[in-house]
Amino acid sequence: MSAASLISPPLTLAEIPQPQILSLGVLASGSGSNLEAIAQSIRGGALKARIQVLIYNQPGAGVKDRAERLGIPAVLLNHRDYASRADLDRAIVETLKQAGADWVIMAGWMRIVTPVLLDAFPRRVLNIHPSLLPSFRGVGAVEQALSAGVKVTGCTVHYAVPDVDSGPILAQAAVPILPGDTPESLHARVQVQEHQIFPLGIALAAQRERDI
Ligand code: GAR
C-alpha cells in the first residue's frame, strides 16, 4: 500500500531566498534525528545556516553522540540541577548567547519553556511536534493519534509560545495512518517527514522575519 505524504506549504528550500547564514542553537532531549537532519540539510547546501551549539538536558541522550559525530559543540544543562524552569532557561539563554546563536531550534526538547527564553529570542524560537497541531498536543502525540482512530496524522513546525505545542504554524506534513500501525512504525514515518519540514520551517521563519 502506498503511503503518500503531503507537505504544506508545498515549497522546497531551493525556492526560498536565503540571503543570510542563520546561526542556530539546537535544544534536544532525545535521539537527535532532527538535529542530524538539519545538519545534513546544511551540509548539502540546502539550508543556509550554522549550528553553533547543541544544548541537551538528559545525560544519556543519544543526541550527544550524534553531535559529537557531526562535530557540533554539545553542552549538557540538566534540568534537575535548576530550582525552576526559569532558572534553567536563564542558563540556556546564556549558553546560546555565548555560542553566538540567534535562532533557537527545539528539536525534541521535552521541557516547557518560559518567557525567559522566549523573550530573549523574539519570534526566533521554533518547535517541532509529531502531530498535525492543534490536534494531539503534549507528550505521546503519536499514541494519542492512534488511540483517537484518526486516519491521517503528521507533524508541525511552529513558533514556540508560552503554551505547550501552540503558536503560529510554519509548515506541516500529513502522514496516513496504515492498518496495523504501531506507535513505533507510525512515529518512524512521521519522523521522515519531520526531517523534511524542519529545515523548511527554519528557512520560512527567516524569510518571514525579513518580510516584516
Ligand atoms: C520528534 O518526533 C519530535 O517531534 C518530538 O520528539 C521527537 C524527537 O526526535 N517532540 C515533541 O514531542 C515535542 N512536543 P529526535 O530526537 O529523533 O529528533
Order of helical and strand elements: EEHEHEHEHEHEEH
In CATH, the topology of the largest domain is named: Rossmann fold
Main-sheet strand order equals: 1-8-7-6-5-2-3-4
Q: In whole angstroms, how far apart are the ends?
A: 44 Å
Structural class based on helices, strands and sheet pairing: alpha/beta
CATH superfamily of the largest domain: Formyl transferase, N-terminal domain
- Per DSSP, the total helix count is 6
Shape: globular
Q: What characterizes the major β-sheet?
A: 8 strands, mixed
Number of domains: 2
Question: Can you offer a commentary on this structure?
Answer:
The structure is a single chain. The chain has 2 domains: 21-122, Formyl transferase, N-terminal domain (Rossmann fold, 3-Layer(aba) Sandwich), CATH 3.40.50; 127-212, Rossmann fold. The protein contains 6 helices and 8 strands. The protein is globular and about 50 Å long. It has 212 residues and is of the alpha/beta class. It has helices at 33-43, 62-70, 85-99, 115-120, 141-148, 183-211; strands at residues 6-8, 22-28, 49-56, 74-76, 103-106, 125-129, 152-159, 169-176. Helices cover 37% and strands 22% of the residues. Strands 1-8-7-6-5-2-3-4 form an 8-stranded mixed β-sheet, sandwiched between helices. Helix 1 (33-43) packs across helix 6. The structure holds glycinamide ribonucleotide.
Question: How is the topology of this model organized?
Answer:
Blueprint: E1 6-8, E2 22-28, H1 33-43, E3 49-56, H2 62-70, E4 74-76, H3 85-99, E5 103-106, H4 115-120, E6 125-129, H5 141-148, E7 152-159, E8 169-176, H6 183-211
Parallel strand pairs: 2-3, 2-5, 3-4, 5-6
Antiparallel strand pairs: 1-8, 6-7, 7-8
Helix pairs in contact: 1-2, 1-6
The structure holds glycinamide ribonucleotide.
The site of glycinamide ribonucleotide has 17 residues, from helix 1, strand 6 and helix 6.
